[in-house]
C-alpha cells in the first residue's frame, strides 16, 4: 500500500510561485535603483562589482527601475498579505510558526544534521524547527522590507515610519540588508530543495507527496 | 479533490500522483506563460515619456494617493546646524554661463493674467524662514542643508492676483527654459516649500541656483529648481524636465 499525502495546500502553492517572480523583479528593479547611488560595501567588496554591473547591464536605468519597483510593489504586498491572511484563516500557521523557545535549539540540531554532524533529526511536525524559523523569518523580513521601503518612499508623509527605522539613511540600509537576506535565503532554500529530492519538490507543484507504507 | 490523505495500492497511487503532477505542471506552465506575457506587456507597452504606459498609469495612481494624503503636517524632519553636510551641486542644466545675476528679474504669470516681473528685493521683503532639512536626490543620496528664503505660500498670497481661484499646478523654469519643473499646488504651498536665496546662512552660489531657487523638501531634488526665471500658475498639468525622461512626474516624498 501507499499513500498520497497532501503536503502543500493549493493556495499556499499559488502564493509561493507568484511570490517568486515578484520578489525576483522587486530585487532586480531595486538593483537598477541601487546602481545610481551605491554606498554599501563589506571591507573592500563593494555592492556591486563592475563585472556584475556590466554583465547584467544595470547601468543608467534608474527611472526604469523606479517605475517597475513602484508598480510591482502593489502585487508583491497584496500577495504577501493574502498569504499571511490565508495561513491564519486556514490554521496552517500552526505548522509554520515556531511555538516554543525549543525551536531555536531544535533548529540548530537540524543544521548540524544537515551538515552531517549529527545523526538524528529532532522530533518535528510538518516542518522541522529550522524550516519554521526560516519560513516565519522570511515573512517578517518581507514586512520589514515593506515598512523600510515605505519609509524611503515617503519620508515626509510617513516621517514617523522613517523615524522608526532610525531615519532616512538607516531605512535605506535596512532595506538593502534585507534584500541581501533574500538572496542568501534563496541560495540555502534551493540547495535544500535539491537535496530533499523530487518527491518533495513535486509536492510544491502538485500538492501531494507519495508516502509508502511498510 | 483536496483530500488530506489518499490510501491506495502502490501502483494506483503512483498512477494517480502522476496524473496530478502532469496536470499541476500543465497549469503551472500556462500560468508561467501568462506571467511572462503580462511582464512583456508591462515593460514593452507603448512608452509615454519614456516609461511604458501601464507603469505610467500606476505611477499616476500612486501620485493620486500620495497627493490626496499629503497635508501641511507631513514634514521632513528638522536638524541642528551641526548636522549640516556638504551638498553636491549635482546638475547644471539651465545654468548656462550667459547669465547676469544683476540683470535678473522674476517673471510671474497665470492663466488669463498678463505676466509681470518682480525684483529679488520683492521676494526677499517677504518674511524670511530658515530651516535645516534633508535634501533627497532621486539617485539615492541625501544631504542636510540649511536654507533661508520665503515660503512659496507667502509669495503666492502676496503676488497672486486676489479674488481669483488658485489653479491646480505651478510651473517653474530657468531663465533659458532649459530646465523646468511642474508641481501640484498642494506641494507648492506646503509650509516647507521655500523660494530660497540663502544656503547655510550665506547667499546662494551660482552653482546652487543664485539668485533664487526652489527648495521643496517634500519632493526629490529634481524638482528643486535652481535659478528660477519664471513662475506660472496654471490649470494645465505642466511639463517637467525629468518626468519627460522617464521619471515620475509627482516625485513626492
Secondary structure layout:
The complex is a heterodimer of chains A (214) and B (253).
Chain A: E1 2-6, H1 10-35, E2 41-42, E3 45-46, H2 50-56, H3 62-90, H4 93-96, H5 102-114, H6 129-153, H7 159-164, H8 168-196, H9 198-206, E4 208-212
Antiparallel strand pairs in A: 1-4, 2-3
Chain B: E1 5-8, H1 10-44, E2 47-48, E3 51-52, H2 53-69, E4 106-110, E5 113-118, H3 120-124, E6 128-136, E7 142-151, H4 152-159, E8 169-173, E9 180-184, H5 185-188, E10 194-199, E11 202-203, E12 213-215, E13 230-234
Parallel strand pairs in B: 4-13
Antiparallel strand pairs in B: 2-3, 4-5, 6-7, 7-10, 8-9, 8-13, 10-11, 10-12
Molecular structure report:
The complex is a heterodimer of chains A (214) and B (253). With 214 residues, chain A is mainly alpha-helical. Chain A is built from nine helices and four strands. Chain A has a single domain, classed as Transmembrane di-heme cytochromes, Chain C (Fumarate Reductase Cytochrome B subunit), CATH 1.20.950.20. In chain A, strands 1-4 form a two-stranded antiparallel ribbon. In chain A, strands 2-3 form a two-stranded antiparallel ribbon. Chain B is an alpha+beta fold and 253 residues long. Chain B has two domains: 1-44; 47-245, Sulfite Oxidase, Chain A, domain 2 (Alpha-Beta Complex). Chain B is built from five helices and 13 strands. The longest helix of chain B is centred in the N-terminal third of the chain and has 35 residues, at 10-44. The model of chain B has no long low-confidence stretch (mean pLDDT 94). Chains A and B meet through strand 1, helix 1, helix 3, helix 7 and helix 8 of A and strand 1, helix 1, strand 3 and helix 2 of B.
